[in-house]
Design brief:
There is one protein chain. This protein has a 15-stranded antiparallel beta sheet that branches. It has a two-stranded antiparallel sheet with strand order 16-17. β6 (60-67) and β7 (74-80) form a beta hairpin. The chain has helices spanning 121-124, 193-209, 218-230, 264-276, 281-293, 343-357, 364-380, 399-419, and strands at 8-12, 17-21, 25-30, 38-40, 51-56, 60-67, 74-80, 83-90, 98-118, 129-133, 137-142, 145-151, 156-158, 161-169, 173-182, 232-233, 238-239, 262-263, 304-305, 316-317, 331-332. It is built from eight helices and 21 strands. It has two domains: 5-203, Beta-galactosidase, Chain A, domain 5 (Distorted Sandwich); 213-419, Glycosyltransferase, CATH 1.50.10. The protein is globular. The termini are far apart.
Length: 427
């Protein structure tokens, strides 16, 4: 049975993300991007749709979880009758390949462990061809995808699943590294788990150290900022609204949407939170992404784009997945990309204005885009639209949309006055 949503924790490398349950199971992972097909899709189905579980064989008396300091390194402690182990999960950022690293560390006594690897590409549909690779690896291939598991623990096949039992005494550890690469390229190299852990901790600690918020709630604020950073797509600067698709608005309902897409609205709210904490690098990267994504006629502005700026986000259903706690259908893509949502103009203009107030380097291209958007807004602001709730019915008039149209004009005027930018202020 799928775990509760609140029992999952996120690890990521700023290109994709994995959800790790309290029971030590990775039930969601899309490779190589947030919006790629899932190879672990148990979150929206069952173990047969793909998961990777590492947990004690016997009864678990207590489970504790935490992130290691101000990082995205997850530590899960299992307490059993015979001892205690810690499962350390992370995804190294800035690597030459995409990896998930899992290390079991013996803390006290001796614990018998079980590992179960169920790889199912294409959102749980495709069973890969699994072969041994070298003396300590397994290679799984299905179509364009290749995944290689490296570990000193010997695994064997049972019912299209790779499994193993092993023992971890106090003071010892066992590591597993799972790496993705296109199947037509060379097999990914084995990475050193301890070196990757050190580099990953250093990356997140350095990023966290630049947070300028020092208020009463620094810990939860910084944890929220780390999560927002994890949802950025490093190669392009895009920001996804979530790492998942089809988690329901209500259990058993049909409003199950794909949020692995770059909404302009969501991204601007994310950027304002990051900029308020002193993070402007992400804002610059997103501004450059925005200029590439919306390039062309302002009449063709969309409310959302793909991670690389893709415009065609066709929505389709995944009939072989039953959905989270039976909440069907499971969807990939989002048909709302063709809607008119007038409030988006206000959110974009406000975010770019806040960036200027924060002394972010000015961009002539960005200002030209803003002027074009305002000119286009003059012609559409009085029209009915689909609003912030993206209603899938006839367009309506929404107060929020009208207010945000005013925000767009107000921020354009303020930016022009603040930075002495060229614009038709008299009009």
């Amino acid at each position: 049975m799928t775990q509760r949503i609140e029992d999952y924790a996120l690890v990521g490398d700023c290109e994709t993300g994995a959800l790790v349950g309290r029971d030590g199971s990775i039930d969601w992972l899309c490779w190589p991007r947030f919006d790629s097909g899932a190879c672990f899709a148990a979150l929206l189905g069952g173990p047969e749709h793909g998961r990777w579980r590492i947990a004690p064989t016997g009864e678990v008396l207590r489970t504790e979880r935490r992130y290691r300091g101000d990082t995205l390194i997850l530590e899960t402690t299992f307490v059993t009758q015979t001892g205690e182990v810690m499962l350390v999960d992370f995804m190294p950022p800035k690597g030459t390949q995409s990896d998930v690293v899992r290390t079991v560390v013996g803390v006290r006594g001796e614990v018998e462990m079980h590992v179960e690897l169920v790889l199912r590409f294409g959102y749980g549909a495709l069973v890969p061809w699994v072969t041994r690779y070298g003396t300590q690896g397994l290679r799984a291939i299905a179509g364009p995808d290749m995944v290689v598991l490296y570990t000193d623990v010997p695994l064997h096949g049972e019912n299209l699943t790779s499994v193993a039992d092993f023992v971890v005494p106090a003071g010892e550890s066992r590591s597993f590294t799972l790496s993705w690469r296109p199947s037509h390229k060379a097999t990914p190299d084995r990475i050193d788990a301890s070196v990757a852990l050190r580099d990953t901790e250093e990356f997140w600690r350095e990023w966290s150290s630049r947070c300028r918020y020092e208020g009463e709630f620094r810990e939860p604020v910084l944890r929220s900022l780390l999560t927002l950073k994890a949802l950025t797509y490093g190669p392009t600067g895009g920001i996804v609204a979530a790492a998942t698709t089809s988690l329901p608005e209500e259990l058993g309902g049909v409003r199950n949407w794909d949020y692995r897409i770059c909404w302009l609205r969501d991204a601007t709210l994310t950027l304002i939170a990051l900029m308020d904490a002193g993070y402007f690098e992400e804002a610059r990267a997103w501004r450059d992404w925005l200029l590439r994504a919306v390039a062309g006629s302002p009449e063709q502005l969309q409310i959302m784009y793909g991670l690389g700026g893709e415009r065609r986000l066709l929505e389709w259903e995944v009939p072989w997945l039953p959905g989270y706690e039976g909440s069907a259908p499971v969807r990939v893509g989002n048909a709302a990309h063709g809607q008119l949502q007038i409030d988006v103009f206000g959110e974009v203009m406000d975010a770019l204005h806040q960036a200027r107030r924060g002394r972010m380097t000015e961009s002539a291209e960005a200002w030209n885009l803003e002027r074009a958007l305002v000119t286009h807004l003059e012609g559409v602001h009085a029209q009915p639209d689909h609003g912030i709730w993206e209603v899938r019915g006839p367009p309506q008039h929404f107060t929020h949309s009208k207010v945000m149209a005013w925000v767009a004009l107000d921020r354009a005027i303020r930016s022009a006055e603040l930075c002495r930018l060229d614009g038709p202020l008299a009009r």
